[in-house]
């Protein structure tokens, strides 16, 4: 194992947990999240010498590959949550599950933008740059996403009211 | 009110636990393999682009600036099996014309696009000649505007200088020496005469010319030029003359529709009405002994008319395979007393140079020895060189036309774009 591989391994060991959480939010599925992260890590290994900020690069790959993968495979937007959901008493998790279910009914693009804006805390400008779209598009897709959430899950009105 | 970020964070906590080492090891291995593939693709594309760009540049930059020799220059003199027309874009470019007339023995001379062209007997190269006073007169179609001697060592052509002087110039191709034989002096009153026909005697020594004013008076005069002489005496010519004849011993002759007359300077040797000749072409060739004349014609019977001046009769030199439709026979000269070289132009399939047995001599039958491309006009051939086999020379390396250069550049550009696009696609493709 050479120094670069060791460096890469250290990066994966230290950051893969956080990255996997983002991947999970983006995909809503354990297996897809692992696959997506693996693809992003391979791309990072491919260009390791040139990466000044590996994590930023991996995250960008996560965002863009998630959208393009969905486009290519025409993945069904119907969530696999039923298969992945662990057994839970869940009474106090109603809101979370409702949000998770509602997110699963968004388009990949809408979900990705919500994750970037409200989980990764990126600005509209940064989100647009990460996805290669304009700030205006970010804004309009965000608005559409909230409208859909409001329609599909009226009980989330309080949650999204402050942001919509 | 629950914050959206907090809810998202809680959902994210449900993500599976990472599998650090295996995942990292596998990702690293696949990533590095993809990196090696990227490098190979980039190297391949760079090499391909260099090859395309370099090849295109060398094709364009090293395109011949002259029509290069197509065979070793020390090859034995011979007539090529194919005589080709010169492309228009080459004819149009003065850079491809040469005024250096010391070009050695030539196998053929003709006009292409109105310009004189010579084909070397030793290397097969083509030269567009910048002949002094070269003039391609308008009007009727004179025979042999540029006439190569039967031995391929001299060239003759009609000249018309700006001051109105007209005559015949010859060049000795070994050293480029030009001889001038004025026919009509400068500033002569009356309509401008032009030399309309020049031909060599079978021994390449004598010249016979004819001049006239085609539009108004027809042919006016003709004369002969002794070997090496720069003077000539004009004799009258019938206005309806179509071709001139030259014999080895100061014999000169004129061909008219249905009639031939042969004279020396002292007397008329022969006059003969040719009943059979329907449409004489402006080409005729006298045998070396001066007794027979092969007359060009357009006939459907696959034969050349040969006038026997001693017996005052016409015999036919038959040859097969050229009796399909309209065929024009243009005698190019005689090989000794037995064989006539004829350019047989079959409307349906182009022109062949054919060696035809003279009447009464059927030893070998006819033989096709060369082919002539469309666009070759007023062809004369070094007939003496036809006593040996014609040779297959590589085609002339014509420089490219601008249109072709543009097409090649566009093609090369497209290839480069495709190569770069392929590289980009491969590099952007996710690693497997």
TrEMBL record, chain A:
InterPro entries associated with the record: RNA_pol_sigma-70-like, RNA_pol_sigma-70_dom, RNA_pol_sigma-E_actinobac, RNA_pol_sigma70, RNA_pol_sigma70_r2, RNA_pol_sigma70_r4, RNA_pol_sigma_r2, RNA_pol_sigma_r3/r4-like
Keyword set, alphabetical order: DNA-binding, Sigma factor, Transcription, Transcription regulation
Domain of life: Bacteria
Keyword Transcription tagged: yes
Domain RNA polymerase sigma-70 region: 16-73, 102-150
Stated family: Belongs to the sigma-70 factor family. ECF subfamily.
Protein name: SigE family RNA polymerase sigma factor
Organism name: Nocardioides aestuarii
Automatic annotation (TrEMBL), chain B:
SUPFAM superfamilies: DPP6 N-terminal domain-like
Alphabetical UniProt keywords: Membrane, Transmembrane, Transmembrane helix
InterPro entries: WD40/YVTN_repeat-like_dom_sf (IPR015943)
Residues spanning the membrane: 40-61, 407-426
Organism domain of life: Bacteria
Name of the featured protein: WD40 repeat domain-containing protein
Species of origin: Nocardioides aestuarii
């Amino acid at each position: 194992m050479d120094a670069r591989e060791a460096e890469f391994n250290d990066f994966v060991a230290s950051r893969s947990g956080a990255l996997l959480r983002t991947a999970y939010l983006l995909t809503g599925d354990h297996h897809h999240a692992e696959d997506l992260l693996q693809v992003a890590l391979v791309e990072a290994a491919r260009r390791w010498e040139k990466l000044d900020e590996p994590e930023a690069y991996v995250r960008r790959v996560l965002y863009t590959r998630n959208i393009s993968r969905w486009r290519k495979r025409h993945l069904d937007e119907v969530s696999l949550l039923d298969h992945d959901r662990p057994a839970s008493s869940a009474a106090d998790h109603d809101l979370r599950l409702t949000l998770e279910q509602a997110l699963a009914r968004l388009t990949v693009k809408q979900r990705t933008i919500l994750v970037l804006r409200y989980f990764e805390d990126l600005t509209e400008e940064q989100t647009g740059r990460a996805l290669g779209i304009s700030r205006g598009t970010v804004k309009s897709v965000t608005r559409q996403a909230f409208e859909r959430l409001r329609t599909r899950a009226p009980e989330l009105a309080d949650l999204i009211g402050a942001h919509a | 009110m629950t914050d959206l970020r907090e809810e998202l964070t809680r959902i994210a906590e449900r993500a599976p636990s990472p599998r650090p080492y295996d995942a990292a090891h596998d990702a690293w291995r696949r990533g590095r393999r993809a990196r090696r593939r990227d490098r190979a693709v980039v190297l391949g594309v760079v090499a391909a682009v260099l090859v395309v760009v370099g090849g295109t540049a060398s094709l364009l930059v090293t395109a011949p600036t002259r029509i290069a020799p197509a065979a070793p220059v020390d090859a034995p003199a011979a007539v090529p099996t194919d005589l080709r027309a010169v492309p228009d874009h080459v004819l149009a470019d003065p850079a491809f014309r040469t005024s250096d007339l010391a070009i050695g023995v030539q196998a053929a001379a003709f006009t292409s696009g109105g310009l004189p062209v010579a084909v070397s007997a030793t290397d097969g190269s083509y030269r567009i000649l910048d002949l002094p006073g070269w003039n391609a007169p308008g009007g009727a179609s004179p025979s042999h505007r540029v006439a190569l001697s039967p031995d391929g060592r001299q060239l003759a052509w009609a000249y018309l200088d700006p001051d109105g002087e007209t005559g015949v110039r010859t060049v000795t191709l070994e050293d480029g020496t030009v001889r001038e034989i004025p026919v009509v002096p400068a500033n002569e009153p009356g309509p401008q005469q032009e030399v309309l026909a020049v031909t060599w005697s079978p021994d390449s020594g004598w010249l016979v010319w004819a001049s006239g004013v085609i539009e108004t008076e027809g042919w006016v005069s003709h004369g002969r030029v002794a070997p090496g002489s720069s003077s000539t005496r004009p004799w009258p010519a019938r206005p309806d003359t179509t071709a001139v004849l030259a014999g080895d011993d100061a014999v000169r002759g004129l061909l008219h529709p249905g009639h031939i007359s042969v004279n020396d300077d002292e007397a008329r040797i022969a006059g003969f009405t040719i009943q059979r000749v329907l449409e004489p072409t402006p080409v005729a060739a006298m045998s070396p002994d001066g007794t027979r004349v092969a007359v060009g014609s357009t006939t459907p019977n696959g034969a050349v008319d040969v006038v026997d001046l001693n017996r005052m009769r016409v015999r036919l030199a038959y040859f097969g395979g050229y009796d399909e439709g309209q065929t024009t026979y243009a005698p190019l000269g005689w090989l000794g007393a037995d064989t006539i070289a004829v350019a047989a132009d079959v409307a349906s399939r182009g022109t062949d140079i054919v060696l035809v047995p003279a009447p009464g001599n059927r030893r070998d039958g006819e033989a096709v020895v060369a082919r002539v491309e469309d666009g070759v006009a007023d062809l004369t051939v070094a007939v003496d060189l036809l006593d040996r086999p014609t040779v297959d020379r590589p085609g002339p390396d014509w420089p490219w036309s601008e249109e072709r250069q543009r097409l090649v550049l566009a093609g090369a550009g497209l290839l480069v774009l495709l190569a770069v696009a392929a590289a980009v696609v491969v590099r952007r493709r996710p690693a497997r």
